[in-house]
Structure formats: structure tokens, C-alpha cells
Amino acid sequence: xxxxxxxxxxxxxxxxxxxxxxxxxxxxxxxxxxxxxxxxxxxxxxxxxxxxxxxxxxxxxxxxxxxxxxxxxxxxxxxxxxxxxxxxxxxxxxxxxxxxxxxxxxxxxxxxxxxxxxxxxxxxxxxxxxxxxxxxxxxxxxxxxxxxxxxxxxxxxxxxxxxxxxxxxxxxxxxxxxxxxxxxxxxxxxxxxxxxxxxxxxxxxxxxxxxxxxxxxxxxxxxxxxxxxxxxxxxxxxxxxxxxxxxxxxxxxxxxxxxxxxxxxxxxxxxxxxxxxxxxxxxxxxx
Length: 287
Hints:
Aldehyde Oxidoreductase, domain 3; TIM Barrel; 6-stranded parallel sheet; 13 strands
């Protein structure tokens, strides 16, 4: 993740949640110090550990964070992944935002890992789509990579994707590809989305860089791949679920893009436990 972008995003998230101050914590804890522990309440892939360090440093540069796991490592239920020490007010100010982001990212990484395991075909790359939460694309796409997947386009300017509306407006795939290549230049790849054998042949003749087999059955994907020159990258997408993913094993396609990795991932379950001293001794609190 790009650190400056992460700081900007977290600053915005904190401003939304903290407002003009945490009236609950400030009223109760004043200037007391304590220690917080972030614990995994389920098993899966960690993504977003940098959010803990960067987030708490934004709130108070004197907060000390210690990480026991790194992104991409497998967490087992009950594992403590981080220890954070500093003013209790600041620990609590950051708790909800940091856990929310961490849960979202680790949920996506865990689902991506599961998709790769379900497919069980190292010759095929699992990748994401642009079906991300607005404002969270950098975080969510990073989480896909941490889970073992790859990123498709980050945005519309990253590559040409010719779909049915573009083809209809131009009258043919060939015309659409020629217009796109003239406009975008030699540095930008051109992908064409097809559904039929006729469209596939036209995309091949137009010398597309990538051809997407959209909403095609595993048998169609395998047949279309065999018809496509090795110089053209192939991708399957549309209507593929976690349950149907194994059916695409050994189809020969290069990529499978899955929107559900980011639009349907369940949040990973984390909790934060607090520890602080007072006149009666030391108190441990589940936050």
C-alpha cells in the first residue's frame, strides 16, 4: 500500500468517527495509560497490519505498536496479532476504525485464499474486478494480493476494456479495437469481452491483447481457449461463484476474475482487549 494514500484515508476515517473528541473515554480515563491487544476470533489470512501502525501513529506518535504477525500469514483463532501501548484515550479513539479496516481487509484476503484453494489449479490466476467499495479500492485490492490473487484494472485509465456497448457503438469489434488502439497508444493493453465463437474470431483477428470469455460455461471456456493463439491472454469472468469455481479447473484459461472477492466478502472477526492499572490493581477489559 502507498503510505501517503493510507495516511490520507485513515485521517478521513478518524475524522468521521472521532468528530470533536471521544467524550466517553476523555470523561473516564483522563490521562491514564494502558495496553491493548488485538486478537483473532476466527482463523484466516491477515491483511492490513500496516493500518495498525500507521493509524495509531497518526493519533499519537508516542504510541508503541508491536506486531506478532505479518500480512499474508495465517491466523488461528485466539492468536494475538498486535500489542499497542499508550494513552488509553488514544487507544480507544483508534480502536473502532482500525478494527473495521483490518476486518474488511482480512476478510477479503481470507476469501481470496479460499477461492484459490477451491480452484486448485496453479496454472490459472485468480484476480479481482473494479467491484470494490468506493473509497476503499486501494485497501481492498491490496487485500486480494495478500490473499494470493492478482489485481485487474485499478481504474478506467489503466487499460481498455471493450464491452458490448462499445462494440454496438462502433459496429464491430475490429472497429472498436482500432479506435481504442489509435486513441490509447502502444503502452495501453486492449481487452475485448466476448460471449460467442463469432465474437472470439473477430477479437483474434483484431489482435486484442486480452480476450475475456464472459458468462461462459467451463466447456465453452476450454473450447474458446483452445481456439485462441498463445500470444493472447485469456480471462474467464461473469457468474462464477465459490461453489462453481472448481468446474473451471484445467480449462486452460489464464485468468479468472471474481467480483465477489471484494463485493461479497464477510468481515474477519477481531477483538481488542484492554489492560490498564488503577488503585485497585490491574484490570483486563474486552473492548
